[in-house]
């Protein structure tokens, strides 16, 4: 029996904006296009959602629903940076991580949950670490299939967790509106409504032949299976790791070099440990620094031979750090190893050179 966690960040884009800009907190905030143009809503804060505003709605309609809403343009670079931070926390738990988008991912924790006592405890620890590192909340679903884990993460939002045990799965599926099932979009739900199917139970009782006739063999069988709680899809881990890293956001902005270098050394050791755990070696190391005004710079250094130790890497990072502009305090430092190869590849290249 698999143990799968689905993590879904709460109103991700909007929450990043509210975190970074205190003046937006507690107010209806919409990330998207021009409310006087043809833009659409990319994300809405929970304050905005109270007015019925949802993703993909036109910004013009959103403004009609909530004239006092604040509209901001997306900052995808910022969202990607936070997403990578969250993924790093996930990869520290298991390599079996399947990102679905910047704000959600599956984890297969079947082989690691025992160390935490339960998959639920593991999910809660991950949520706590995400909040500690990013200041953002995440909702989680825990179950034995991807479908159920994803359904579960949506049942107790925001900042909640739901566990669906195998013995309770079918009764829950039966009770849900069909729109709650991942893969049943607006067009499919309209077709199902037309034949009197509105709930999971009604979908389960619909003959497979009817579903195939309506949706074709592949999709019809998929709908039939999910209504019966059948989902054999595996968590598809990324095949190739392009980088391994870690970063820390300080509770208070820091000026002092001695403190910053000590924190940087800690991050280097942590990142190098993750690299070693995966039997990888890196030829490139990158320093990431975010200043008090949220501006950000990176500096990299590459070697022909891979970095052999955390101390070796830190020597180069400390040199990169001393070269960066220092006009304001720093709120985040990060370390990323890239240009990766397996330790076996490194050993073979060494042998080939002899």
Could you please describe the fold and organization of this structure?
Helix 4 runs antiparallel to helix 5 (119-134). A five-stranded mixed beta sheet has the order 5-6-1-7-8. A four-stranded antiparallel beta sheet has the order 9-12-10-11. The protein contains 14 helices and twelve strands. It is of the alpha+beta class and 354 residues long. A hairpin with a 2-residue loop joins strand 5 and strand 6 (104-108). The protein starts with a strand and ends with a helix. Pfam families: IMS (PF00817), IMS_C (PF11799), IMS_HHH_1 (PF21999). It catalyses: DNA(n) + a 2'-deoxyribonucleoside 5'-triphosphate = DNA(n+1) + diphosphate. Keywords: Cytoplasm, DNA damage, DNA repair, DNA replication, DNA-binding, DNA-directed DNA polymerase, Magnesium, Metal-binding, Mutator protein, Nucleotidyltransferase, Transferase.
Which labels suit this protein?
single chain; 354 residues; alpha+beta; Alpha-Beta Plaits; MutS, DNA mismatch repair protein, domain I; DNA polymerase, domain 1; 5-stranded mixed β-sheet; 4-stranded antiparallel β-sheet; 14 helices
Main structural class: alpha+beta
Distance between the termini: 48 Å
Q: Please name the CATH topology of the largest domain.
A: Dna Ligase, domain 1
What would you call the shape?
globular
| Total of domains | 4
Major sheet strand order: 5-6-1-7-8
Text of the CATH class of the largest domain: Alpha Beta
| H and E string | EHEEHHEHEEHEHEHHHHHEHEEHEH
Mean pLDDT: 90
Strand content: 15-25%
Q: Helix coverage percent of residues? A: 40-55%
* CATH architecture descriptor text of the largest domain: 2-Layer Sandwich
Tell me the number of strands: 12
| Low-pLDDT regions | 344-354
CATH homology-level superfamily of the largest domain: DNA polymerase, Y-family, little finger domain
Radius of gyration: 23 Å
Largest sheet: 5 strands, mixed
């Amino acid at each position: 029996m698999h143990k799968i966690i689905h993590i879904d960040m709460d109103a991700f884009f909007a929450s990043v904006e509210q975190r970074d800009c205190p003046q937006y907190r507690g107010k209806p905030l919409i990330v998207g296009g021009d409310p006087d143009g043809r833009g659409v809503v990319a994300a809405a804060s929970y304050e905005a959602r109270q007015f019925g505003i949802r993703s993909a709605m036109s910004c013009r309609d959103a403004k009609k629903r909530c004239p006092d809403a604040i509209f901001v343009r997306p900052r995808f670079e910022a969202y990607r940076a936070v997403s990578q931070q969250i993924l790093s926390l996930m990869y520290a738990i298991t390599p079996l991580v399947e990102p679905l988008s910047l704000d959600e991912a599956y984890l297969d924790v079947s082989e690691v949950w025992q160390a935490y006592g339960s998959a639920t405890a593991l999910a809660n620890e991950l949520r706590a670490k995400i909040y500690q590192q990013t200041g953002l909340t995440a909702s989680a679903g825990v179950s034995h299939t991807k479908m159920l884990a994803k359904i579960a993460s949506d049942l107790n939002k925001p900042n909640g967790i739901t566990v669906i045990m195998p013995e309770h799965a079918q009764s829950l599926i039966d009770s849900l509106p069909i729109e709650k099932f991942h893969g049943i979009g607006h067009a499919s739900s309209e077709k199902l409504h037309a034949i009197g199917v509105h709930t999971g139970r009604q979908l389960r009782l619909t003959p497979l032949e009817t579903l195939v006739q309506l949706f074709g063999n592949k999709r019809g069988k998929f709908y039939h299976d999910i209504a019966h709680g059948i989902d054999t899809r595996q968590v598809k881990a990324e095949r190739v790791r392009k980088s391994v890293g870690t970063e820390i956001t300080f509770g208070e902005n820091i000026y002092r070099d001695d403190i910053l270098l000590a924190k940087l050394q800690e991050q280097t050791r942590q990142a190098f440990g993750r690299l070693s755990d995966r039997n990888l070696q890196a030829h490139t190391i990158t320093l990431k620094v975010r200043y008090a005004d949220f501006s950000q710079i990176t500096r990299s250094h590459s070697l022909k031979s891979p970095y052999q130790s955390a101390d070796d890497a830190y020597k180069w990072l400390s040199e990169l750090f001393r070269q960066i502009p220092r006009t304001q305090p720093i709120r985040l430092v990060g370390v990323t190893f890239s240009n990766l190869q397996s330790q076996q590849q490194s050993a073979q290249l060494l042998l080939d050179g002899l």
